[in-house]
Specification:
Elements (H helix, E strand, L loop, with lengths): L2 H45 L4 H32 L6 H27 L6 H31 L8 H41 L6
Amino acid sequence: MNYLGRTCARKKNRTMRLRLWLKGLCGAAALLVSSALLMAATNQAQFGPPNSASGNKASILLEQIRAQAVHVRYLADQLQAYERDPNLAWEADAGILTRMRDQVNAMDRTLYTLRTIEGQTLPWQQKAIDRITPKTYELTSYVEDATQNLNNNHETIYSLDRTYAEDADGIYHRAAFIARSIGDYEHYAAARTEIQQLSPELGIRAGS
């Protein structure tokens, strides 16, 4: 083979090696992309949309607190009614306060559980938690004060001590506030979801 033929052969070999190298590089890149896509799909299948599980859990816990607050409000209403009946014995109030304390303690535990996941909650749930937290603490304080007051002054609780009536009033209004606030946020979330679902059908943007 002459010089020109050998030169052409060498160029042809280099060209083939370059093509093989590029083919291998593209194959490796494709493999990396496929692996990344597979990993992303696996993560999405395992964990789902961000905050979905925590959001659902928070909704359940908020609804529990709302139901507990409604029960406490009902018990506080009974307590206020007993104050207007001089023929009732103080033991009736003690029974109501015991049930009330159980409900409030349950609310405190539920709120504590909510606080452990509040960094993963939906915005409206976080606002609801922030709104009810101070009222829940106040509610607990009112129940404790009323219980102690009744235990120490049960014989004169209706005739001489107006702080007991104020405690009962404070319990009622705090429980009502908590139940109403959670209900308002739940209605807001439901309305917002409905708007988002209807917007495509109406041909408008959700924020319009």
